[in-house]
Structure to design on (233 residues):
């Protein structure tokens, strides 16, 4: 098993009243799974993804990646392990405007491990996401879909076992969104586990594991008849 989330919770306060943004979540994913979590805005999707990615500390519960409990290693060891194991496509625009596309993709390598020339690897990732011809362009000249492809290539730079993607099709027209979903599905087919969260119900047909998030609760395999409710929400 690649990812095991056990009884994971994150509690916040609204005013002085505590509430669970993520409540007792359990999740197990294998190599090559393409897992999709659908949920409305505010249901806790980003919080869950940020907990798994190590950007937030849980209130309680456990996250294991390849059997390793990241809470039990020290910060430096934990962040090195995460950086070599997890790729993250954050919500919204995250590409640095002062760097070329190629430099954006190479960045994760140089941030952690300054040795070696990774230009060839970055170009091959750009090829994989279909925008090798834009390697030397600057982000302001790219479309929304192209920027999302850069973010995906960048997230793959350190050859992660797990790719986390937060609303990767947000603000894209449905054709471009479909292309991005196809791309993520191909990445999962190469053995990288993909976990994406979205409010886009179009995504459902691309994943092999489907979940719904409602007010911090994660529910697996939504029965057919509830899809219409999700879709109309
Ligand atoms: N740092 C925070 N402090 C307090 N409440 C937060 C914080 N971050 C998120 N929340 C709240 O937690 C809930 C879940 O947020 P989020 O995970 O961003 O939802 P989603 O990504 O599904 O839109 C929301 O009600 C949000 O307002
Ligand atoms: Mg979110």
């Amino acid at each position: 098993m690649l990812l095991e989330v056990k009884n994971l919770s994150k509690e916040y306060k609204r005013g002085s009243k505590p509430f669970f943004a993520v409540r007792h979540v359990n999740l197990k994913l294998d190599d090559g799974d393409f897992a999709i979590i659908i949920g409305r805005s505010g249901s806790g999707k980003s919080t869950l993804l940020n907990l798994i990615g190590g950007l937030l500390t849980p209130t309680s519960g456990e996250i294991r990646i390849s059997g390793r409990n990241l809470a039990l290693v020290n910060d430096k060891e934990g962040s090195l392990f995460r950086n070599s194991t997890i790729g993250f496509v954050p919500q919204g625009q995250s590409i640095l405007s002062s760097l070329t596309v190629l430099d954006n993709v190479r960045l994760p390598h140089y941030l952690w491990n300054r040795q070696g020339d990774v230009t060839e690897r970055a170009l091959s990732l750009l090829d994989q996401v279909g925008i090798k011809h834009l390697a030397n362009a600057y982000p302001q000249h790219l479309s929304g879909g192209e920027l999302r492809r850069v973010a995906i290539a960048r997230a793959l730079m350190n050859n992660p076992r797990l790719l986390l993607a937060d609303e990767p099709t947000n603000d894209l027209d449905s054709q471009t969104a479909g292309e991005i979903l196809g791309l993520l599905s191909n990445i999962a087919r190469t053995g990288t586990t993909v976990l994406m969260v979205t409010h886009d119900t179009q995504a459902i047909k691309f994943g092999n594991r489907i979940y719904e998030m409602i007010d911090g609760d994660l529910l697996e395999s939504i029965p057919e008849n509830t899809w219409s409710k999700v879709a109309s929400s």
In short: The CA atoms of residues 28 and 60 lie 17 Å apart.
